[in-house]
Amino acid sequence: MPEFFEVLPPKEAYQKLEGSYTPRLKTEEIPTAEALDRVLAVDILSPEDLPAFPRSTMDGYAVRAEDVYGASEGLPAYLEVVGEVIMGAEPPFALRSGQAAIIFTGGMLPRGANAVVMVENTQVLGEGVEVLRPVAVGENVIQVGEDIRQGTAVLARGHPLQPQDIGGLMALGIIRVPVYRKPRVAIISTGDEVVSPGQKPPAGKVRDINTYTCSALTARAGGIPLLMGIIPDDRAALLDACRQGMEQADIVIISAGSSVSTRDLTAQVINSLGKPGILVHGVAIRPGKPTVLGVVENVPIFGLPGNPVSAVVLFTLFVAPTIRRLSGAPAASSGRTVTARLTHSIASVAGREDYVPVRLLEVQGELLAEPIFGKSNLIFTLVRAEGTVRVPLDQGGLSAGEMVEVLIF
Amino acid sequence: MPEFFEVLPPKEAYQKLEGSYTPRLKTEEIPTAEALDRVLAVDILSPEDLPAFPRSTMDGYAVRAEDVYGASEGLPAYLEVVGEVIMGAEPPFALRSGQAAIIFTGGMLPRGANAVVMVENTQVLGEGVEVLRPVAVGENVIQVGEDIRQGTAVLARGHPLQPQDIGGLMALGIIRVPVYRKPRVAIISTGDEVVSPGQKPPAGKVRDINTYTCSALTARAGGIPLLMGIIPDDRAALLDACRQGMEQADIVIISAGSSVSTRDLTAQVINSLGKPGILVHGVAIRPGKPTVLGVVENVPIFGLPGNPVSAVVLFTLFVAPTIRRLSGAPAASSGRTVTARLTHSIASVAGREDYVPVRLLEVQGELLAEPIFGKSNLIFTLVRAEGTVRVPLDQGGLSAGEMVEVLIF
Questions:
Q1: Which residues contact B348 (CB under 8 A, 6 or more apart)?
Q2: What is the ipTM of this complex?
Q3: Contact A321, A220 (CB under 8 A)
Q4: Which strand (E) or helix (H) includes residue A321?
Q5: Which of chain A's termini has less CB crowding within 10 Å, N or C?
Q6: A137 and chain B: CB distance < 8 Å anywhere?
Q7: How far apart are CA A272 and CA A186, in angstroms?
Q8: In this complex, how many residue pairs, one in chain A and one in chain B, have their CB atoms less than 8 Å apart?
Q9: B326 falls in which pLDDT band (50, 70, 90)?
Q10: Minimum-distance CB partner of A147 among B89, B142, B380
Q11: Which of A52, A167, A262 minimises the CB distance to B379?
């Protein structure tokens, strides 16, 4: 093999990639109602006090707390009822000493009132009401600005919007919101042996799997997949496809064919696209050692191995965090993990991270991770798996019965 | 209050709802490439053997294992090289005794060959090759059908498709796939005090939050939200909106106003829509007791309390599993939970489930759940939270330092 083959541990490999390009995030403004899971491109400060008026949290009577001080069942406080607060309207009256008003949850307190007595603690008496328990000033009331004060930081730039955040923005009247554009990911499949899934492959050929797996993983990581098709093992054709990918997308993935010659071709093409070119050629990981990480003109380029299990593991480790970074999302929002007890020992070689697909089983309330030992070329090993267990770089394996962390697909 | 007010524990309430309608799932066929997270409507059996031909898993030489039996560095086996397997093509030659062929990972074994010797264990000698180690029959080869056999169950009806499943289906040439239609969820907002978020609310009025929170939660649970708008507290108008919702959707949500009169109106309207009507009026849960669960003409109808924290908790407990059930997905695919250590004690009342919003913090590698004690009417309590801790029905609270399960939003 002609290239300088530098095999790095996964973490260092990712850091080298990360340090070799500068995310240039683009912003777009979209309706807040459509912004679920999109990443905020600005800090949001509250433009107003919420609520804008004192609201009752109970059905009952708006009162002046001082009028019901010391009230009890034996010695109720009698108040004159001067009106009812209509939902959604400003009360046209004010409470004076000795007065109360009927109010419902969410109603606006009349001027003069400073607390609400629950209806359960009252009884109607003629034109008025008897209050059977005292209330403190502010009791059963949400004060102006108690939910959020004008000028307070509400949500930070880089935050992926959750359902309740959408609600919060709407509450403040923020119906359009600047978010980062989703990064586009060009997916190129190579290999003379690869045909489109719609075809019946002749002897010696196989259907394209990785384009579609990578496409789904891209969507899940918050990117927009651009399918560039299947490119034959031809330097000029691959170079052309990569250039198109770099023009149209923010990230380029080349799902290399499985043969060494295709992998070499991928590496040569990445290096001839521009500077700096290949940064890492080979990662100390199984499955997936023959991985290429590169950057050309600030565009991250990935050469993933052809076998489907490697492609998924490497996508998860390298491409997904790159998509998130180019989405403006925090690095911390990595994959979902669960803790489970390993059912069988896994052997490994120190100095290499092993990723072993596992099935998750719940037995008597305990979560078990059962390794699926299969050749990494088998897509259905992966279909049966719910995640992978990582065997750390410096460990010679994991023992049955150990608690392990499973990275969920 | 005129209705029979039956307050049930959450689990029983959900079971009563579940038992009162029959999911009638509708199927549609869509491109597999677009089927991520969609739920399979049929069992998928493999239509063919995968791979369809014996493939090499290494770069090296295709051989007859019997020809290299006992080979070693000291006593290599010499084989005549009769050709090279071209990627994606059926080899036009067969191996006879004493012969080998150059082969790459993914290449098709020539007839006569039954194993592959890694290139690392060979050395070129003249027109032939010396093999320095023996191989067993089948070594470094994926046999026909080893990934999956024709007729084998691949994926089961009700399975939500993951990225690797999309790849597996493509590998089998299954480029279109029958999935269940996503359930449509009509979201009706009520309350004379509620205005659209685009408006500046006059004194006494507030912007609609729950329509948008419920809409985002619907999308996340796998449903299609249909926004029916804000309906005034008027029986005829609400009845009309509900009827439209039932015509257009599979589930109807009424986000009730906060006042008791609106809640009563919601209940009356659900009962007058048809049979069986209201099943549960009140759930032993905080926040969110005044919840209505009903079914009319096999359509589940939810009356959710107006306050945003209740709405989110109740959506998660009742509406999300209903959406999943009407998506054809297994009940088990419930919300994501993590285990964390509680930072502060939470008081509760036995006989009621409390859901307390918490923030998650990682301190020295440990995950901590910090309760956010806020009034349940405050949307920004929820915006600051990452999930809720459940205080079980029969427990008087949770103590600081306990390990608790946090339901992630």
A1: B286, B354, B391, B395, B396, B397, B398
A2: 0.89
A3: no
A4: helix A320-326
A5: N
A6: no
A7: 18
A8: 270
A9: very high
A10: B380
A11: A167
Residue A118 host element (H or E) = strand A115-118
- Return all residues near B165 (Cβ < 8 A) that are at least 6 apart: A383, B155, B159
Neighbouring-strand partners of residue A342: A369
Give the sign of the dihedral formed by CA A70, CA A73, CA A75, CA A80.
positive
> Which amino acid type is present at position B130?
E
Q: Do A147 and B378 touch (CB under 8 A)?
A: yes
User: From the CA atom positions of chain B, what is the Rg in Å?
Assistant: 31
B75 in reach of chain A (CB within 8 A): no
In this complex, the residue of B163, B197, B202 whose CB is nearest that of residue A213 is B163
Range of weakest confidence among A175-179, B67-71, B228-232, B370-374: B370-374
Give contacts of B 306-335 with A, CB under 8 A.
306, 308, 312
- Strand-pairing partners, residue B100, are B81
Residue A121 confidence (pLDDT): 97
| Inter-helix orientation angle A210-221/B163-171, to 10° | 160
Inter-chain contact A87–B173, Cβ cutoff 8 Å?
A: no
- Residue A403 one-letter amino acid: M
CA distances from B235 to A63, B168, B349 (A): 31, 53, 36
**Tokens for A281?**
């050629």
Q: Per-residue confidence at A259, pLDDT binned at 50, 70, 90?
A: low
Kind and range of the H or E run holding A325: helix A320-326
Strand-pairing partners, residue A324, are none
A193-A194-A197-A200 Cα dihedral, nearest 10 degrees: -20
Residue ranges and CATH numbers for the domains of chain A are: 10-26+182-326 (3.40.980.10), 29-50+147-180 (3.90.105.10), 55-142 (2.170.190.11), 337-408 (2.40.340.10)
Tell me which of B164, B170, B313, B333 to substitute to probe the interface with A (most A C-beta atoms closer than 10 Å): B164
Q: What is the pTM of this model?
A: 0.90
Give the pair of three-digit tokens for residue A145. 């600005």
CA pair distance B16, B279, nearest whole angstrom:
7
Provide the β-strand partners of residue A116: A62
Touching A: B residues 359-388, CB under 8 Å: 375, 377-383, 385
Asked if residue B168 lies in contact with residue B33, where contact means CB atoms within 8 angstroms, the answer is: no
